[in-house]
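pinned: reference chain
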Amino acid sequence: MEGYVVFNKFLFQYLLVMFLVLAALAAFTVFAFVITNSGTGHAVSGRGFKDYKLGDYSHWLQKRLNDTENWKHLKSCLVKTKYCDNLIKDYPTLKEFNHAQLSPVQSGCCRPPSECGYPAKNASFYDLSFRSLSSDKDCKLYKNNPAVKCYSCDSCKAGVAQYLKQKWRIIAIFNIAVFVLLILVYLVGCCARRNASEAYYSKT
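pinned: its structure tokens
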């Protein structure tokens, strides 16, 4: 009897912990899908890259990216890693650049939004003497200076949001696979506890 009580207690604690893990995993996965459900790139006519708008993404992501301290840290990392410097090396001609499949961060942070209308001279330089008719504040924030670029733009934050969305979606899909596996393990534990109980009571 003592052995059964110990085993039964262990199984109960094990199943309780498994249940809590499953609940937490399910909650995180649902949360990940909810905050990454909105937002996508906008195709640019005649270009291989896309424009990204911060307002398209979830309020949760917008709030985190608009937080001054959060963005200060992220912007500092982008500047220090010279994220935009390789564009001119990767796409030496304007034609190559115009058809380039830029990453969301490159598209949002390394160039002004397309609606600004600034003519591109190469992958890292735009003619800012062109008078833009756009009301987008990012048009005034963009500079050709490698340390400035569009790192303070909403389009850059939107590019980061799209990057996070892609990564979180991958994590969420992986979590679903883990969740299914843990459900199977949990069911095995439930069966073991039930069988142990039946075996014990059949002897008494």
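why pinned: DSSP finds eight helices and four strands in the chain. Strands lie at 42-43, 50-51, 120-122, 125-126.
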